[in-house]
Write a structure and sequence with these properties.
- This protein is an alpha+beta fold and 206 residues long.
- The chain is 42% helix and 22% strand.
- α3 crosses α7.
């Protein structure tokens, strides 16, 4: 085989292999970042969330499968956060008003999960909610009781948390929807509580 032909065939093979790998990593070229990819996966291949045990702001122990039968809106926070988590707390407070009726009917619940459980005691979690004038309607704040439980949640929800050298954490932020079967089915942008409320009303047939 001529050297030029061998080189051409080798190059073609590399292009094919590289293209296949890129396609797999980006869900068939539809997702060009890991954040977009996890949202595509949630919509098209819902995964069951693990039955991790959490301690709430009142000190009560709950399991994630306790929410089966309701739509669950989840975010991940840490109470010392000066940016994203403040915005998420404000949005959950707005969603309490926007979805007051389905909350009252027991069809929708909200859950803020701390990825800083060593610091975020029940008292800290309660203070976080009170900062946003939580009126006690359908919103819990909680922390995983074991490191293994936290790791499982981060894997399932695709949460990235990196300790910052200056203190605190760098992390992604979104609002995640879990269906009544306990599956992660949607990941939505923060910053638009009206869109989150509309998404849930559509799922509830309203």
């Amino acid at each position: 085989m001529r050297p030029v032909l061998r080189t051409a065939l080798a190059s073609a093979a590399l292009l094919i292999a590289g293209g296949a790998a890129f396609s797999a990593a980006t869900d068939g070229f539809r997702a060009f970042t890991s954040e977009t990819a996890r949202r595509v996966r949630a919509r098209e291949r819902p995964v069951e969330i693990p039955a991790v045990t959490l301690e709430t702001q009142s000190g009560t122990l709950i399991r994630l499968d306790d929410f089966r039968g309701t739509w669950l809106v989840v975010d991940f926070i840490y109470t010392r956060c000066p940016s994203y988590c403040l915005a998420l707390g404000g949005e959950f407070a707005q969603l309490q008003d926007l979805l007051a009726r389905p909350i009252e009917e027991g069809k929708v619940r909200f859950l803020s999960i701390s990825f800083d459980p060593a610091h975020d005691t029940p008292r800290q979690l309660a203070a976080y909610q009170q900062r946003f004038l939580d009126h006690g309607a359908g919103w819990l704040a909680a922390r995983p009781v074991t490191p293994e439980g936290l790791a499982r949640l981060e894997r399932t929800f695709g949460v990235t948390v990196i300790a910052s050298p200056l203190g605190g954490y760098v992390h992604n932020a979104a609002i995640q929807i879990v269906d009544p079967r306990g599956r992660l089915v949607e990941i939505l942008d923060m910053g638009d509580p009206q869109a989150v409320a509309q998404n849930l009303r559509r799922r509830l047939g309203r």
